[in-house]
Amino acid sequence: MKSLTDITLPGNVTVTDPVSSTFPNIGSVVVKVLQYFYVLAGIGLLVIILGAGFTLLTSAGDAKAMEKGKKGLTNGIIGFLIVFVAYWLVQLAGIAFGIQSFKDIFG
Fold first, then answer.
1. Predicted confidence band at 72 (pLDDT cuts at 50, 70, 90)?
2. Which domain holds residue 75?
């Protein structure tokens, strides 16, 4: 009997339950999302630090521009620390709850 989750492809090839085979549990979904989140956070950090550095370099002694650059650099570093701590909290949650896929995010 064909279930609602079966997909029939051309050539009478039937794929049974493609969603649950790709993401068998909630941990695998979270792992996929977190992988992209960490990469985007790293790219964002790089852009913020480069922008703040450029502002500092082009401030030409202007106190307002120099403060803006320092503030941008500080915000970038604080953002990095937040992402870094979040990564380790996810790792600790994986250990505490025994979710192997959390522990293998980049492994």
1. very high
2. 25-103
